[in-house]
Write a structure and sequence with these properties.
Helix content: 25-40%
Structural class: alpha+beta
Radius of gyration: 15 Å
Order of helices and strands: EHEEEHEEEHHE
CATH architecture: 2-Layer Sandwich
Number of helices: 4
């Protein structure tokens, strides 16, 4: 029997019909890739990195996969392209951004892939939706749960993530 690992994937979009792109991505991820998937609500956030661009929608989807992180990242990058992403500048506008946030409770660093995602602790647009679907996940280096990471973040910066739309997928499997 192949072991399946719980993974979390962040979704971001600030071009085109953002919500429709999310609906398509979540549908594909939950039927073709992840088992027992569940998604967070959708949040709107100001752009991060380059401020002169439209606001982003952000969400997180979790589920189980037998794939290792490099294969997951490759799959996500191909799905971004399939759903309309084109090459732009780093942190620039995009139709869809899919990032592997976590792969189980452990770490992975090889083949150009680092998990947990290096920016996870510094981004409320990741932490807020992540808390909805996996609040007790513990960062292996920080030794803090997602709930605790949000508390630390909010002491240093106000939370900017604003509710935009309800969960796109709610199987009750949190």
């Amino acid at each position: 029997m192949i072991k399946k690992t719980k993974v979390a994937i962040a979704l971001g979009s600030n071009l085109g019909d953002r919500l429709e792109t999310f609906k398509r991505a979540v549908q594909i991820l939950s039927t073709d890739f992840l088992e027992d998937a569940n998604s967070s609500s959708v949040y709107e956030t100001p752009p991060w990195g380059i401020s002169d661009q439209p606001a982003f929608l952000n969400a997180v989807i979790v589920g189980f996969s037998e794939w290792k992180p490099p294969a997951i990242v490759n799959y996500l990058k191909n799905l971004e392209i399939d759903l309309g992403r084109t090459t732009t500048v780093k942190n620039g506008p995009r139709v869809l951004d899919l990032d592997l946030l976590v792969w189980g409770e452990g770490s992975w660093e090889s083949e150009g892939v680092t998990v947990p995602h290096p920016g996870i602790c510094d981004r409320d647009f990741v932490l807020v939706p992540f808390e909805e679907v996996w609040p007790d996940w513990t960062h292996p280096k920080e030794q803090k749960t997602v709930r605790e990471l949000i508390k630390v973040f909010s002491k240093n910066s106000p939370l900017s993530a604003k509710f935009f739309a309800p969960r796109l997928l709610d199987t009750g499997n949190l």
